Every structure is written in structure tokens, then in C-alpha cells.
Amino acid sequence: QVQLVESGGGLAQPGGSLRLSCAASGFTFKRYAMRWYRQAPGKERELVAAITSPGGSTNYADSMRGRFTISRDNAKNTVYLQMNSLKPEDTAVYYCNAVSLPRGDYNYWGQGTQVTVSS
């Protein structure tokens, strides 16, 4: 059974940091590109960051570049999102996504974790 379980969300102050984790099981993690998406109330889901495998090449949305860092540990079947310099507009539900390589034949989603940035 495929599972993507996000954790690490919560309340942070503007300028603060949070680290999200996504633990994967039920598929060959190292054969999947991993992505973080987010969806704010009333807005469409948007790509936050992506990381390939095995090389670990990364890509970020413009508004997150320099503040967020995506990483993965293939030995632990886990992908991370380190979020620094958080802003109120980062408030959203953050979702973990796995896409099979090389053609994206399989696509899995986690249940999401809430991140709220507020003073």
C-alpha cells in the first residue's frame, strides 16, 4: 500500500522556520521524483519545490527560491522541505507528491500538512 505521510507543519511567526518531512512507503522511493506543492484557501494548488533521483537536482518556484530547501534521504525514504524566512503568504496546506521516473506513469499524493504563518 502506497503511503506518503507529511509531518512538521504548524504555526510559525513571520521570519521563522519550519521543516516538513514526508515519509514514503509502498513503492521504490529512489525511482521517483519528489515534489512539494501547497494550496492556500481559495487558490489553486501550486508547485513549491521538486527534487529528482538519484542525482538530487532541485527546482523551486520563484517566490520560494532562496528561502526554501528541498532535500531527500533515499535510505530513509523521506523527503524534506526546510522553510526559512516564512511569510504570512506562505500559509497553506503543503502536500507531498511522488512521480515515477522517467515517464511519470505513477503519481501519488500525501494527505497534506497545515502551515500557518502568523504573529
Q: In short, what is this structure?
A:
The chain is mainly beta and 119 residues long. Helices cover 0% and strands 52% of the residues. It has strands spanning 3-7, 10-12, 18-25, 32-39, 46-51, 58-60, 68-73, 78-83, 92-100, 107-109, 113-117.
What's the SSE blueprint?
Blueprint: E1 3-7, E2 10-12, E3 18-25, E4 32-39, E5 46-51, E6 58-60, E7 68-73, E8 78-83, E9 92-100, E10 107-109, E11 113-117
Parallel strand pairs: 2-11
Antiparallel strand pairs: 1-3, 3-8, 4-5, 4-9, 5-6, 7-8, 9-10, 9-11
**H and E string:** EEEEEEEEEEE
Shape estimate: globular
Counted beta strands: 11
Q: Biggest sheet: strands, sense, closure? A: 7 strands, mixed
Share of helix among residues? under 10%
Give a description of the structure.
- The chain has 119 residues and is mainly beta.
- It has no helices and eleven strands.
- Strand 7 and strand 8 (78-83) form a beta hairpin.
For this entry, give a set of tags:
119 residues, 0% helix
